Amino acid sequence: MNVLVVGSTALDSIKTPLREKPRLLGGSASHAAVAASFFAPVQLVGVVGQDFPRRYLELYRKFNLDLGGLQRLPGKTFHWSGEYEINLNNRRTLKTELGVFENFRPDLPESYRQTPFVLLGNIAPNLQHHVLDQLRRPRFVIADTMDLWLNIAKPELLRLLRRIDALVLNDSEARLLTGLDNVIAALPAIHRLGPPYVIVKKGEHGSILSAPKGLFLAPAFPLAKVVDPTGAGDSFAGGLLGYLASQPGPVERNLRRALIHGAAVASFWCEDFGLARATKLARADIDRRVRALERLIRTT
Amino acid sequence: MNVLVVGSTALDSIKTPLREKPRLLGGSASHAAVAASFFAPVQLVGVVGQDFPRRYLELYRKFNLDLGGLQRLPGKTFHWSGEYEINLNNRRTLKTELGVFENFRPDLPESYRQTPFVLLGNIAPNLQHHVLDQLRRPRFVIADTMDLWLNIAKPELLRLLRRIDALVLNDSEARLLTGLDNVIAALPAIHRLGPPYVIVKKGEHGSILSAPKGLFLAPAFPLAKVVDPTGAGDSFAGGLLGYLASQPGPVERNLRRALIHGAAVASFWCEDFGLARATKLARADIDRRVRALERLIRTT
Asked: Taking the model in full, what pTM does it have?
């Protein structure tokens, strides 16, 4: 089944302790959509400016993304610059130039409105609402968010939580959202805000799924070298939802393996800058790493 | 089969953001030995002073610890005071009074020298060597350590690593030992120093076993409330080794489930101060939590 991904489509200038890469293809929607495309047909919703390189459109097409929902507006593409600290766990935003993103209004083409699996990537909650308003009874909606919206748009975000199936967030966002320092204690508090499914991303420490039938502790794939973690969280969510869309049967039954698939995908994302590793990735590589992850957590 | 545990036997004065508990029974050997005793007969090696409360000897006896190797010397018992920060992840030592521990020389009673499973708890590496020198062909030796010995007794520690089967350490110690920031990259470097098994403790994020047959990622039991994490790492190692000693068949085959048992035991340790939760614990409680942990990582 199809997957709809909305979020930012951006140019990323990334500095790590070892290297610097200017104007890579980035943004939450780019990473999530490419990740999901390994499993299911993907419809992309985003906005780019007139400076958006033709080769990046070709990159989207290489992954068979439906670009009917990608607007091209007069002005510049959203540009983010960031720098990672030595251990790559902490990053610092150097510059954010919103460009055409400032006036982004995600209007969906008619062909997108019946899509069953929806990822509301990290954008302003009012835009996430606007997408939901145009959809006809989606089957499973995942929303991602960030600390910024928790700080400046909390009422809209809280209203969104009552309209989605699953919230994906990292541990510090879980603390910020609930005021609770213990992530396990924060989970029931987040469920009370609406979503029946909550997925907490913990980077190299894996992720936690909290579902009506209980918790699942998903591992991260152990990497001896991380080159650039940008987009790892987005590719995790995209891979997870793409896998769900590709599987028969109820979502609840497929969710644990979906987290494992998301973890496998995200690990590849960390192995090179931007989407560089993704362009050399085959579905068989992902499946191999999924099997490796399953062996890594087998108790016998 | 029997387990020998050597380490510190101390009085701990612990401050958490909510409470303060003076002169609890503590020390690496106390925690590890009590934890191991749920699975196998335990022989304790340690030293206490004349101020060591009789009720703590009774507590040891309640767990059927063999106290033939517990020396009682003129002077004061080792006393440690520490304070935890608000999230209980970081602690700060307020005071360390070595007392009789300063002259500790772990001489083993004859009845201890053939014990097959040995835990060299966190004490000076030269004392760990002294214990090994007295043992007749132990079957499996685990050593724990701490940053202090990495800083002040590295040559003795490096020599110890060539004499043991397994090293247990936390992620920051793994970095300090190898100079490598990435824990996964540090593992092969630690194996090259000697131990065929390395176990990295990551607190609430679980643990990693690195063995000749590959990695195992063990979960931590998700706790919504941690009261006092003191002794969690020691109880993890003790529970792990006690379980190993209780199982037939090769150690390699039982190690993954041993980490799960260690994790289950350690989670109870965090639920109250010192050994308070342990005194109310039954083997059936541990087994129930082991089964819960196994469900939490099942992918289907």
From this structure: 0.96
